[in-house]
Amino acid sequence: MNNRTVIVAVSNQKGGVGKSTILVTLASYLNYSAGKNVAIVDCDPTQRSLVRLRERDKTTIGKSNRLMALLDGQRESGRKIYPIVAAKPENAREVAADLAAKGDYDVIFIDMPGTMDAKGVLPTIFSSDYVLTPIVADNIVMDSSLSFARTTVKVIRSNNGLPLKDVLLLWIKVKHRSNSDVLSRFSEKLGELGMTVLKTVIPDTCRYDKEISESVKPYFRCSLLPPPAQYLKGSGLKELAEELIIKLNI
Question: Is 243 exposed, middle or buried, given 0-12, 13-18 or 19+ CB atoms closer than 10 A?
């Protein structure tokens, strides 16, 4: 067990913003490229998107000699495949604690459902060390995201005994031209509220949607292999990982 294992709930009150996509790509970079020991607890009971992604990755890699060679090389380097474990929202924190007790993990991410109404979501969030909340510079999305973050921060500040230290807001899907004004306006508002906004900004790029395939098409999102180094530039992923390593002290 790593006594310094950090539990991070990845949550947003608005579903469909790309939370799980960012999470699995970040986890793969941290685990396979940055040398950090990572685990994921998938507690989205309706989608199980990351558990299913892992199943697709295994199937696809098993059919490709090229991808199998990459996976074999990664194993020879000593980097282990990180676990993705399914759990109910109300049991997710317990499952994360069990993983931490049995393994030497630097960080365990809990992929939360895209709604606060699911049973056990709030207790899991408040018993984690941090919440990572991807936000999109869109008025409708921000209304719900801001409400969630503001309420959570208020609870933290009024309950010093909670394990939860902070809510980390992350701008994603940023279109530099079309929504820069909205981004600036909300960033100013978040600053006035004393909320923690990560410096890294994830641009609106289709590379995060590219899964592995048997063909030689480029991929970026995979739970068994790291994002290829040649596609990292301009993605914001390396910068996000480096910022979180310092922020979470992992």
Answer: middle
